[in-house]
Specification:
Layout (H helix, E strand, L loop, with lengths): L10 E9 L3 E8 L4 E8 L5 H15 L9 E6 L4 E6 L3 E3 H6 L5 H20 L2 E2 L8 E4 L4 E3 L6 E2 L21 H4 L6 H17 L8 H10 L10 H10 L10 H9 L36 H21 L21 H13 L1
Antiparallel strand pairs: 1-2, 2-3, 3-5, 4-5, 6-8, 7-10, 8-9
Length: 352
């Protein structure tokens, strides 16, 4: 291995760290600075479009500086050698982490916040990554997250949206609906892809599996299934990030705020149907409210008894009516002749 030719006359390649469609990544030693690096080496036979994307990736990454981006140290783009020398991140990819099973919601929120913060920086520099997926996310041993592989990224105002062969660029399982439809691809496409990546972290499975065309079209048929039992901020973020309409998605900066817990009202809540309001009632004093039926009968019986007692007492207090006095039948002749008898009767009645 020590006799193998050096890459660029400087970098000694070691173990393979992985590979993609156009290049392989190796652990390497920078013999000039005596430090470990990661070397991304293009495979031989790459077409002109592939070489152009490689050079663009190198220049884009070299012009960016963020703690969540892999630092670019060097690159070469000759016909004989195409390579990119980068900071070596000791750890694993997010794809490796997911392979061990679903991740806890809190860890997913933390990973999402870090990636969203990186994307916010990238977007502020006018760049759309366009290939956010678990294998392009590196996690160091201390839990720090890095976004890598800008091989198919584009400036936001670039016209080209497809490769020279006419194929839409991106990974089918993580494409946004507008990418599938061949529409304008902007910052919201990265937000959508990040939402699907975080959803995969939570469930342990790809949301839209299958062959390229099958996977790509599936998102046009149904929205992703976001588990309802997630913490509210995480659930709200994923639903908003993966909505079909790119104009309705939050920005990467807003996602970073919500996922980190620094904000809770940046992303609008998905409102549930509101229940009908209760019927309006008049405000009554407590004394005006009727007592329950089971408590009313003692009062009714007591009241009736009291009324009856008052009636009886009133009846007993009323004196008996005196019999209407009647004159004894008159006797004797009418007129003056009987006057003495009438006077005698009247005197008797008065005395009585």
């Amino acid at each position: 291995m020590g006799d193998a030719p050096l890459l660029g006359g400087r970098y000694r390649l070691g173990a393979s760290l992985g590979g993609g469609g156009m290049a392989d990544v190796y652990r390497a030693m920078d013999t000039r600075l005596e430090r470990l690096v990661a070397a991304k080496v293009f495979r031989s036979g790459a077409d002109a479009a592939g070489r152009a994307r490689f050079v663009e990736e190198a220049r884009l990454m070299a012009g960016l500086s963020h703690p969540g981006l892999v630092t670019v140290h060097d690159f070469a783009a000759s016909e004989d050698e195409l390579y990119l020398i980068m900071e070596l991140v000791e750890g694993q990819t997010l794809a490796d982490a997911i392979a061990s099973g679903p991740l806890p919601p809190q860890r997913v929120a933390n990973i999402g916040a870090q990636l969203a913060d990186v994307l916010a920086y990238v977007h502020d520099n006018g760049i759309v990554h366009r290939d956010i997926k678990p294998s392009n996310v590196l996690i160091s041993h201390d839990g720090k997250v890095f976004l890598a592989d800008f091989g198919i990224s584009r400036l936001v105002d670039a016209v080209a949206r497809i490769t020279s062969s006419g194929v839409v660029v991106g990974t089918a399982a993580y494409m946004a609906p507008e990418q599938v439809n061949g529409g304008q691809v902007g910052y919201p496409a990265d937000v959508y892809a990040l939402g699907l990546v975080l959803l995969e972290c939570l469930t342990g499975r790809v949301e839209y599996p299958g062959a390229g065309a099958e996977s790509a079209v599936a998102r046009l048929v149904r929205p992703p299934n976001v588990p309802i039992d997630l913490p509210l901020p995480l659930h709200r973020a994923l639903v908003a990030m993966t909505t079909t309409d790119p104009k309705q998605r939050p920005t990467a900066a807003e996602c970073a705020d919500v996922l980190s817990g620094e904000a809770t009202e940046v992303i609008p809540r998905i409102e549930a149907p509101r229940p009908s309001p209760p019927p309006k009632t008049s405000y009554l004093e407590v004394a005006d409210l009727p007592e329950p039926r089971r408590k009313r009968w003692p009062w009714l019986v007591g009241g009736a008894f009291a009324a009856l007692l008052v009636a009886l007492l009133g009846w007993a207090a009323v004196p008996d009516e005196a019999p209407e006095p009647t004159l004894p039948p008159a006797s004797g002749p009418a007129g003056v002749a009987r006057l003495p008898d009438d006077l005698a009767n009247l005197e008797r009645l008065v005395r009585e």
